[in-house]
Amino acid sequence: MTQNPEDELLDESLRETFSDFTLSPSSRLWAGVEEQLADIPKAPRALPYKVLLPLVGLVGVGVGWLLPHPESTKPTPKTEQPAVSRTEAPAAALQPAPTTVSPDILSAVAPNKLEAGREQAATTAEKRMAARRPQLTGVETKRITAAQTPETDTLVLAASAALPLAALPPAADTLTATALPAPAAVSADSQLSAAPVQLSASEVRENERTGTAGTGAATRAAAAGVLKPGEAPREWRTEYRVPTHRMAEKGRGFRRRITHLTQQVRHVFSPRRSKAAAQPDF
Amino acid sequence: MPVSSDLDALLARCLRREPAAQRTLYSRYAGRMLGIARRYAYTLPEAEDILQDAFVKVFTRLGEFRSEGSLEGWIRRIVVTTAINHWQSGKLRRQRQVELPDSFDVSPAVSASALDQLNVLEVLSLIEQLPEGCKVVLLLYAVDGYSHSEISEMLGIQESTSKAQLSKARKQLLLLYQQQNNFIRL
């Protein structure tokens, strides 16, 4: 828009007139400004991000470290380890143990030795169980029996099949005293008592190969000699994971964190966990 | 224009709410800003009220100032805006305006440069006789350098209204000058 030169001249004249226009303010003016500034609350200090962010990181790492790790749910060998270590020496000394034994020898030697060992173990363990775990319920007894009996039988079978009887005294004693308490709970109507008699060397090898039920760590160590000194046997007991994966994981907010926290608390303090994680006490 | 280092340090101290620094900043700009406030006000106490409110705003919003422009220009804008707010809220005392005819002719003998012969207070007294809208638009446009779009935004009017008010203000100012001179001559 083009302006009238007269108008521009007038504007210029006004601008020049007021360009140096200054007035001295009265002293009360600053007092008023100071008073109003004092009434205004100070602005809140900005968050110290340089300190806050590392602090949050440290807290996060600490909380993450305190939470249960996946490794902590893995079973740890406890009770079987001494028995295995004791039996390791004769088992390792006799490398071709189960494979070189023919089924005839097995069938001739094993039943007698097995029966004697079983009876002795039964009486010993019965006393110990009665003394140490009088509150054991019937259900638990059956569970222990079902889990332990094959291993015990196999242990005796493997040891007797691999060794001349004279060479076995310390290992056999150890096995009987430490690893054979479970048969004490075998009832008369249990069908497990006949199982070890029919277990042949090929079955032992097959069990060893497939890693199926009834092949305990001690058996495998004695039979195949794969365990080295100081090496813990593989845990045979079944661990049932707490089914936290079934819980819904929707959202990212407070609700999810609360759900996660309650899951962890339940995971730590649930009776199922204590039962599953606890190893048999014998 | 970059802010000089001493002014930068002064601003930093003002941001920390140091009273001495605030007082220094106030002393540096108060005289000029009071002159600006006086143009929009009708009396000196009114101008001081405007200036007080303006400096409170300056110190509370100093963190929003960017060093890209001049600090004086930033404070000047605050003073002008505060003065407009005072005027719009009715805090400024309305002066009795001179009755001027709707259609008036300015003598060709009165030129635009005639105001150069007057001092500041005489020009100010002429401007104060203008209608309020005309006075504010004239000061904003001719003296403080605002555009019509900025004026329309500040005052909440159309740009065409702003232009019309400016045109009317110029003519009335010259007419007032002419009447004053004629009165003096008579």
Task: Provide a concise account of the structure shown.
The complex is a heterodimer of chains A (282) and B (186). Chain A is an all-alpha fold and 282 residues long. Chain A has helices at residues 5-19, 27-39, 49-66, 80-93, 97-100, 103-132, 138-162, 169-179, 201-210, 217-224, 254-269, 271-277.
Key attributes of the depicted protein:
heterodimer, A: 282 residues, mainly alpha, 12 helices, 61% helix, B: Rna Polymerase Sigma Factor, Chain: A, Arc Repressor Mutant, subunit A, elongated, RNA_pol_sigma_r3/r4-like (chain B), transcription regulation (chain B), RNA_pol_sigma-70-like (chain B), WH-like_DNA-bd_sf (chain B)
Walkthrough of the structure:
The complex is a heterodimer of chains A (about 280) and B (about 190). Helix content of chain A is about 60%, strand content about 0%. With about 280 residues, chain A is mainly alpha-helical. Among the domains of chain A are: about 80-225, no CATH class; about 240-275, no CATH class. Chain A starts with a helix and ends in a 5-residue tail after the last helix. Chain A has helices at about 5-20, 25-40, 50-65, 80-95, 95-100, 105-130, 140-160, 170-180, 200-210, 215-225, 255-270, 270-275. The model of chain A is unreliable at about 85-95, about 150-195 and about 210-215 (pLDDT under 50). Chain A has twelve helices and no strands. The N and C termini of chain B lie far apart (about 50 Å). Chain B is elongated. Chain B is built from eight helices and no strands. The model of chain B has no long low-confidence stretch (mean pLDDT about 85). In chain B, helix 2 (about 20-40) packs across helix 3 and helix 3 crosses helix 4. Chain B has two domains: about 5-90, Rna Polymerase Sigma Factor, Chain: A (Orthogonal Bundle); about 110-185, Arc Repressor Mutant, subunit A (Orthogonal Bundle). Chain B has about 190 residues and is an all-alpha fold. Chain B has helices at about 5-15, 20-40, 45-60, 70-90, 120-130, 130-145, 150-155, 160-185. The interface of A and B includes residues 18 and 22 of A.
